[in-house]
Structure formats: C-alpha cells, structure tokens
Amino acid sequence: MADTGENSALFPIFILSIIALPLVPYTILKLLRVASKKEKSIHCACSVCSRSGKYRKSIFRRISKFSTCSNFTVLLLWVIVIFLVYSIKQSSREIEAFDPFSILGLAPGVTESAIKKAYRRLSIQYHPDKNPDPAAHKYFVEYISKAYQALTDPVSRENFEKYGHPDGRQGFQMGIALPQFLLDFNGSSGGILLLWILGGFILLPMAVGVVYLSRASKYGGNNVRRETLVTYFELVKPSLAPSKVMDVFVKAAEFMDIPVRRADDEPLQELFKLVKSELNLDGKNARQEQTKFWKQHPAIVKAELLIQAHLLRKADTFSSNLQQDYKHVLQFTPRLLEGLIKMATVPRTAKGHGWLRPAIGIVELSQCIIQAVPLSARKAGSGSSDGVASLLQLPHFSDAVIAKIAKKVSIFSYSDISETFLEKLAIDNY
Question: What are the residue boundaries of the structural domains of the chain, listed by start?
Fold first, then answer.
C-alpha cells in the first residue's frame, strides 16, 4: 500500500475527476444547445403592441430565463471544481519521488567530498542545534539526513543510481484516494473503511434504485401518472362528444396538485362568469348543471376555469397566484393530451382499432389549446367546417373584428376570408 499521506493528497484529485468527467461534456452540450437555439422574435409595429411592451423582454425576464435549477447546479459544480483545482495547486503536500541529489542541491555523479560539504552547509542551516524551528528539525531528519546516508553509503548510492531508490528495486504500490481520517482513526481504520465502502457502493446504489423504481411505478409513458391514464381509460367512450372531451381531460391527477386558496374564490367566481358560455351549462337544467360543476374537486374546477380562460385569451387578467397556477396547468397540458389520445386510440375493437370520434375531439381540443381558440369557435357554420377558429388564431382578431369583416364581405364565407388573409400573410412574409 502507498503512504497514507499520498492517499490523502490524492483524495481531492479523485473527487475532481469524479465531478469533471460528467460535468465537462454536459456543460459543452448545454452551451451547444444555447448556441443552436434560435431566438424567437415578433416584429409587430402596431401602436397597441408598441404601447403595451408585450414583446419587449426586461432584464429580469432575461435573467429568470437562465436562472433555472439545472443551470444553478452546473454553476455550483464548476465553483467546486475551481476550488478543488486551487486547493490541489496550493497543497503543501506534493507527491514527489525521493531525490537525494536534489535535496542536497547537487548534480548527479559528484564526489563524496562535495556531498559532505553540502551536508555541512545544510546542517548549519537546518540542524536542531543551530535552528530551533520544529519544521527545520523535521526537514533535517526526514530529508537531509536520509539523503546524506543514501549518497555516502556505497550500496544505497549504487541502488539509487540503478533503480532510482536507495533501497533498491521497488515493488508495485497501490493506494486508496481517501482522506487520512478514514484510513487511520484511533485504530479503527478497518471499520471506517468498511462503512465507507458499504455506504458508497451498496447503500447509495440501492437508494437510487428505490427512488427510480418508485418513480417508475408512479408514472407511465411520457411522465404521465398511472392513475391519470387509468382515469382516462375508464372515461373515454366511443360516444364521447368533442364538447365533452374537456370534462375528461381535467380529471387528470396532475391537476390535483394545484393549490386551492381561499383568496382565489372571488377571482374564480369572476372567471366563471367570463367562461360560463363555454362550459355548456345553459341548458334546461342550468342551475343543476352549475351546482354539479362546483361540487367537483376544487382543483378540477380551478384547472378547467384556467384552461377555458386560456382559450378565451383572458389570462392577462389573472392575479399573481393565479398566474403561477395557470403556468402550472399549461406545463402539464401537452403530456396529458398525448396520454389522452393514446387512451382513445388504444385497440378496443375486434379488429384492433381505437375509437375515431373521441380521438378527433381530443385533436380538436389540442388545436384549440395551442392556438388559444375557444371550442365553440370550431362549430361548423358560414360555409366553413372549422367555424371562425382559423381566423381567431390570427393576431388581433376577435369576434367583433370578424363580425365587421363578415358584414363588409358578406358574399364570402369564413373559409374564403381566412384563406385570403393567410395567403396575404404568406406573401408578406415571403
């Protein structure tokens, strides 16, 4: 085994290697992704956008874009790497081979008289009788005296010149890059080392495996909870109408984590009034339908109201708390829609096919969420199978604007108007 001092000196180098091996390629990968990512810019010169500052990014938004948990972890690891490099460089314990000529300040092959002369000169400087400093005493005993003995003894000098060591040919040495207190702690180094091996090579991998398996049992494909997939599988029916897809979609277990605050009661009541027409609660039993709607789980009610407000483009009226919940809902929406479409297309017929009607409804809901267009806008009418949805997805278009256009160009259908605008937009961009 190697000297324990060498083991302790190698420990920072070992930790530095463990951190740097994954950190360097991961950092390069992140930098390449940032360099290759194109910045999306919207050039809108209208007075409304210029006054609102909607497309101007403040310095705080730019900082928040990069102050993520992943970037903070990478930065912290690089700080640790720099500290380890500095500590290794400034370490007083340097692992060097024993060189008596270098210690005595002589060149190889000098005469014995020159060796004695150099020894006397260093003895005046470092001998305990001449220098009371304990560090000088230690250096004299461990280095100067050993170097003098190695060069004045014929056998030791011959061994050093042949094999590079006064004791002759040396065997292969192995060391463990662990700190000194783990290797020698009041005679219990064996137990400490055993605990280190047990924790680092057995308990730690077992803990990682338990966490991974618990997460794998909780989540299915595309990081969707298994209980959500089971709910979707049970609620998706072959007769599911597109207008009822939203009721199934908001039953996801992910939405149950949305915090329900008392302070949100009044804003949600106001939000309910804005989106009431989209909830299909205006039938013959309107009061019963509304009562049934509010008797659902509060998190489900909140999620559906937030999504409906998104479709109606009313999210800018939210408070700060509702804005956080709104972002939380939109964060889960893509993966939940993918899980829902899988439940609709899973083979359930004798021929191994899924159900087309609910699948179409889910695709339409996905399009509406992406374009921020209400589901009612996709109702067929005025010569268009998609209603006015194709127009509402355009910037600055609303129901009032579409109504004015329809009055002026009533001879055209909505589909003709949308095609005209899209062609004009494509020509301008080209």
Answer: 100-163, 188-220, 225-379, 382-429
Q: Which H, E and C letters describe 223-289, residue by residue?
A: HCEHHHHHHHHHHCCCCCCHHHHHHHHCCCHHHHHCCCCHHHHHHHHHHHHHHHHHCCCCCCCHHHH
- What is the distance between the alpha carbons of residues 414 and 389, in angstroms, rounded to a whole number? 9
Neighbouring-strand partners of residue 381: 384
d(CA 258, CA 326): 9
CATH class of 100-163: mainly alpha
Give average pLDDT by consecutive 10-residue segment, the chain, 430 residues.
54 80 86 66 52 54 65 88 82 60 76 82 81 81 79 72 63 57 54 68 80 75 87 90 88 89 88 85 75 88 92 86 90 92 87 87 90 79 60 75 69 53 55
Fold of 225-379: Sec63 N-terminal domain-like fold (1.10.3380)
